[in-house]
Model the fold of this input.
Amino acid sequence: MIAGTMIRLAFLLLLLHLPLSGQTPPVPYAERVKFVVDSYAHPKSTGPLGYANIAAKLRLHEDAALCSRRLEELLAEGPTGDMFWMFPITAIAYLDQGQLSPSARQALRSAYRTYMPYRGDTENHWLLYYSSLYLMAQLWPGEDGDRWYAGKSSEENLREAGGWIESWVRLTTRRGQGEYDSPHYMGLYFLSLSYLAEWAHDPAMRQRSRMMLEYLMADYGAESLDGIYAGAHSRVYDRPAVEKWLNPSSDFGWLLFGSGRPLEPPGGYIIYYALASAYAPPPIVQAIATDRTVPYTHYELKRTRNRWRFFDELHGPVYKTTYMRREYAVGSDQGGTLQPIQEHSWDVTWNVPDPRGVQNTFFTLNPHSSLRELQTYFTFPPDQGVAEVVSSKKSYDSPDKLVGGSPYEQIFQDQDSVIALYDIAPESRFPHINGFFSKDLAEVREDASGWIFARGGDAWIACRPLQPYTWKPIEGGGRRLFSPYLKNGIVVQVAARAEFATLDAFRAAILALPLEFQLASVPSVKFRSLRGKSLSFTYGETPRVDGVALDYAHWPLFGGPFVEAAVDSEQLTLKHGTARRVLDFKKLTVTDTK
Done:
């Protein structure tokens, strides 16, 4: 108990940004891991233990008899949750190490024979399922199919699971992740790979998993703004889309890089990561995630989720651009329905000292809802499609929603300038655009020129809606810009507060920039950015910078000052200063050079 109290005290001092005696914040990595484990092993609530509490106590070799009794109670209630049941049980099985009673261990083994978990329909589901199955087949080798829920032997399960994991790593390192850059679901990829990195017996699987952890750390780190995951996301939930701290990515930013603040208490994904390998980022990844000395543009190529209808190719390309600096980040994809339901296509995110409860973001979207979108990405019958989605993702069919992609939205970004154009079909369900104006924006000014000026933290934001609009209140604070025009768009330019002493100075600089647009036929914009670039963008055409069209055909898998990878290379190069770290997934080697 004394050790647990000291960890809590250290964590409290870290949150208050006070130095600990004899050391300087942040708390060392090992202490952060201990805090996460302790928060679940010694929960503040007095209710019955859950799977995560049992696993954490087993990790600390505490209360084995209590853990055994409670595990039997939970299993007697009947397993539920499919792959979300599998991964907690897998952790308990590997953390047992002789602590559980024979009856508890037998109950666990019996559950894996009688309960048949659904494999799921998303990338994170499949990785959770197969990493858990791989490890449990490894734990119980040589058993026939009648000992397993699917009727396959231990060896067959191990071979199937290992084959899928290897194919996923190969596809991801060649063409990008499908469920990419999700500030929520990233935790499930991290914990699955943490399991394999720690508990897989096969040296190649352990090495592959550790390298993939570094791969995903660098992917996240390059777009991390003091722990906040910036830029475009494949999936994000409604409230965390606007209150960006409220995502599991905050836990990982704090644990891995000492950035920002973790959730309170840390969420259910980070504990399983910490209970397995708790793999620490190498110094070069730590530097990538925290060095914002010089502004930079970072590029990524991802892929869409599996498209089951209406397309000849299973995956489509996702072209991401993110501009990062100390004060703010601007990030986007090219627009369109690249992921169903929860896509987040572009935003401005500004840095704040304490992000808890703060809506530190600005963006627009067309709140699209259609059966065609769902039929593209799901296989359920059409007569139940929308109802099935809305039962769990309640905002999907709402005209007020602030999450989702649209086939009528196209986006172009150059550094900290964004042009979003909309050509909405008259028959669409919600033929308007929504703009999220946070309760935490300051100095908001609607100018006679048509520009709207505001400040978010140390970022000046200028946005020019191309059509008239009205304001609608948002429950909990903030306003929604509502513009009900089929041909529409918005031009956005961001700058650091240090670049302009006052809002008036920023306004004068923006009004001096040439801007031309027309909406007849299709929306089209010509704009000279604050960075001296001539930007031209017409809906349905390739954007141009200084007269040169963007080269989507040669978009890198990763490109920028910190992370590089070529399409199909299965190789990632991490860079910082003179240091280089090359992850070669064909050879499963890691090479450090200067």
User: Anything to note?
Assistant: Residues 1-24 have pLDDT under 50 and may be disordered. The radius of gyration is 25 Å. Residues 313-513 form one domain.
